[in-house]
Amino acid sequence: MPHLSGMKQKTANIDIRVEPLPQLVERIDAWHTRRSTVRTGDLVVDLKTRIVSVHDKLVRLTGKEYSIVELLSLRKGTTVTKKMLVAHLYGGLEEPELKIIDVFVCRLRKKLAQATGGKHHIETVWGRGYRMRDPDQMSQPPTRERQSVRQ
Asked: Which domain holds residue 26?
């Protein structure tokens, strides 16, 4: 047994199970089914039906826009880089320039703001990417003074 500094050595029975891949995928799918919706403020993303709604009203999104909302919602509060978004959207096949993500996010923000009465759910993390946040918890936009310090 390896030496653990500052801790008493105890014998423990550890059961390590390695599941075959199909069973693991089945368990992950079951977990996703149980957690089929992700809520961020008024915005609800149904992962099973691939529908985004606000107050039970459908928000019409393109496939790419939905994929962005999906990834940001699943990683709510965490910064998602543009490279991660491109990989999620295109799966490594003929990936376009990263600037296309800015275009998708701009259109997506307009649609979400219109559906939520002007609330903004997608926060820009300058120099890094984007993150999904509850509009009531979003940080204030940087002032000119704070912007000049960054440059």
From this structure: 22-138
